[in-house]
């Protein structure tokens, strides 16, 4: 049985914990928040941090989330869901 590191230790970037929490609690395309390991979406945290810090638009971040959920995980999200989450994510950027 593996032991998960705390989120703050896995993502030492200032936005790391907040991005993780949005992906884990709000986005959760496969529906594991209530019962799964909280590292389920860790592979997507750093790419999202990069997009937010590069000041990509909510639409660009949503396109990445759509790729991740629809193509990579094969769990398509309802229309507008990825954009809703992307808007939360881009509001995290410094100076927003």
Biggest sheet: strands, sense, closure?
Answer: none
Rg estimate, integer Å? 13 Å
Indicate the structural class. Answer: mainly alpha
- From the spread of the alpha carbons, the general shape counts as globular
Span between N and C termini?
A: 41 Å
Number of helices: 5
Averaged pLDDT:
91
* Overall strand count: 0
| Helical amount | 55-70%
Low-confidence stretches: none
> Which range does the strand content fall in?
under 5%
Compressed to H and E, one letter per element, the order equals HHHHH
Can you walk me through this structure?
- The protein has 96 residues and is mostly helical.
- Helices cover 55% and strands 0% of the residues.
SSE inventory with pairings:
Layout: H1 7-10, H2 16-27, H3 42-53, H4 58-72, H5 81-90
Describe this structure in a few short sentences.
It is built from five helices and no strands. By secondary structure, the protein is mostly helical. α2 (16-27) packs across α3 (42-53) and α4 crosses α5.
């Amino acid at each position: 049985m593996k032991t998960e590191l705390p989120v703050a230790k896995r993502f030492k970037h200032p936005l790391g914990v907040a991005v993780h929490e949005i992906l884990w609690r709000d986005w959760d395309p496969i529906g594991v928040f209530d019962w799964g390991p909280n590292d389920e979406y860790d592979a997507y945290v750093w790419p999202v941090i990069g997009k937010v810090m590069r000041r990509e638009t909510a639409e660009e971040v949503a396109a990445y989330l759509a790729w991740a959920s629809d193509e990579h995980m094969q769990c398509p999200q309802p229309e507008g869901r990825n954009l809703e989450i992307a808007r939360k994510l881009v509001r995290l950027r410094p100076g927003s």
